[in-house]
Amino acid sequence: MGREAEHSLADFYFSDSDDPLCPPEGFVQWAEAGSWAMSMYEPHMLGAVAPRMAIERAGERSDVINLSSYNYLGLATHPEVVEAAQEALRTYGTGACGSPLLSGLSDLHRGLERELAAFLGQEDCILFNSGFAGGMGTLAGVLRKGDVAVLDAKTHLCSIDGVKLSRAKLVFFDHNDPDSLDQALTDSEGARRLVVVEGVYSMDGDTADLPRLLPVAEKHGVGVLIDEAHSILVYGANGRGVVEHYGAEKSIGLQFATFSKAFAGCGGFTVGPRALLHYMRYYINAYGFSCALPPAVVAGLRKALEVATRDNSLRETLWANTRYFREKALQIGLDLGHGSSQVVPIMVGSDRRRLYELTRTLHRRGLFLAPVDYPSVPEDGLRFRVAITAAHTRADLDRALEILEDTIIRGRVDEAAE
């Protein structure tokens, strides 16, 4: 990987081809030249998601410590969750076979809606069969042309795409900066507006600074939507997210989250006022024109919610593991950025070739981490992203730290990288 390391996916967004069904020639050449690096993406999971598992990358099978999956509470293989899904599969079959509006909702779906609304102290809940589509659809469902969406600069792409889909004006404020938010809201006075933030920012691992941001939104009389994808069931005394963590339940208009992280399932949901959600059900195309979640998935999610909230043990274990990993990682000299959550970036810098060489070496030495490249992060902020879970043991974390120190700190890169 030589000159090809000078490029990234951002360089080929606009195609030089006359036919939209033909990829850019430059991309084809670049991908071929850097095939060994691109093969680090789309690894094959050879079994259930677990702290120690087998994966296959570029044709190489390895037994690895998994620090890349969002199974924050370890519920992906929890016996009660698995049994609930199996029982629903036997009773309800494999799929919903219809959109929620027409024929896809079962009593299981309605039960999960009621339970999530009650858990989060809201009036109603909408379920989505995709986390990305849910985040995108929620914004597309409430915003219209002429509205202004004011997003934190590090907000997830699903929110950005939702604003674009709605044809509302997209405005960014500097990450977690109340002065920048104040200026953006001042500049957009006279329009209908909505502020969008995240509970935990997925690439940096820090939280929305609600104590400083919410007073600004309230001063301008503007509502707030928060995406709790990486914080639901993790933050707060009862797992109700960053909103609960900061005691801001009464200051948030809509709360969105995904099921693919701590819930260890798939899909997403939005909670909020009943009248608003009733309206949104008919204007979110990602809801009304998509098949409902499979009943077996819904049953697993209901059991996951029960297991995660019956006591604080899983959450306490997750936070103990997070503190341990962060402390030890800093001691060996890893750059973890400025976050404090269970999402832990390991900063690599701007050397793209080194990022992929490290990825291959980590894999061969028994540690599964995915490379995070530009444009997902800034060009000088290439990184790995660690996901700590309650299922990791101290032995898992110690071995992972040993591999990271040997590879990243001591610089022992696999010589087989080409």
Automatic annotation (TrEMBL):
One of its GO terms (molecular function) is transaminase activity. Its cofactor is pyridoxal 5'-phosphate. Pfam families: Aminotran_1_2. InterPro entries: Aminotrans_II_pyridoxalP_BS (IPR001917), Aminotransferase_I/II_large (IPR004839), AON_synthase_class-II (IPR050087), PyrdxlP-dep_Trfase (IPR015424), PyrdxlP-dep_Trfase_major (IPR015421), PyrdxlP-dep_Trfase_small (IPR015422). Keywords: Aminotransferase, Pyridoxal phosphate, Transferase. Residues 63-403 form the Aminotransferase class I/classII large domain. Belongs to the class-II pyridoxal-phosphate-dependent aminotransferase family. This is Aminotransferase class I/II-fold pyridoxal phosphate-dependent enzyme.
